[in-house]
Amino acid sequence: MEIDSIDQRILEVLQKSGRMSNAELSEVINLSPSACHRRVQRLEKDGIIAGYVALLNPRKVGRPTTVFVEITLSGQADEVLDAFEKAVARVPDVLECHLMAGSADYLLKVTAGDTEDFARIHRRYLAALPGVAQMQSSFALRTVRQTTALPVRP
Fold it and tell me: Domain residues of the chain, as ranges?
């Protein structure tokens, strides 16, 4: 599907304010409400808009600590990778898991209440993940930039 400049603007606005009503969106985009609604429906149907979420303040929900965990597995066989990925998908504190190129096989973004809470997560979940040969954790001291908005203009 081709995304034109109007679609790009719709995507930019919705990424910043997803609860905006169609009437408000159409006013910001300078498009009739019906045309705006049709475009948003098409973007949803085509999977460009994958869903809508509420972004929570980690401090307000008691999860201010972010830890990046590099994991090296004992092997690269498909069954080792599959077993790890299935298990890590069930860890509620893992926000992201990426298969990497480089020295580590996976990079996890983990949220915790504090260092003691991370120690609990490490003992209960991370150390029990299948196929793990090595783990290295790095605590984020401060978040300098964080966004969920993807650039949509070339």
Answer: 5-45, 65-139
Global pTM reads 0.90
Q: Model confidence over 93-113: pLDDT tens digits?
A: 999 999 999 999 999 999 999
What tokens does 123 get? 């003992």
Q: Can you tell me the distance from the alpha carbon of 132 to that of 151, in angstroms, rounded to the nearest whole number?
A: 35
Domain 5-45's class? mainly alpha
Beta bridge pairs of residue 112: 65
CATH code, residues 65-139: 3.30.70.920
Tokens for 55, please give them. 């972004």
Residues 111 and 98: their CA atoms lie apart, in Å, by 15
What angle is formed at CA 2 by the lines to CA 30 and CA 99, rounded to 5 degrees?
Answer: 115
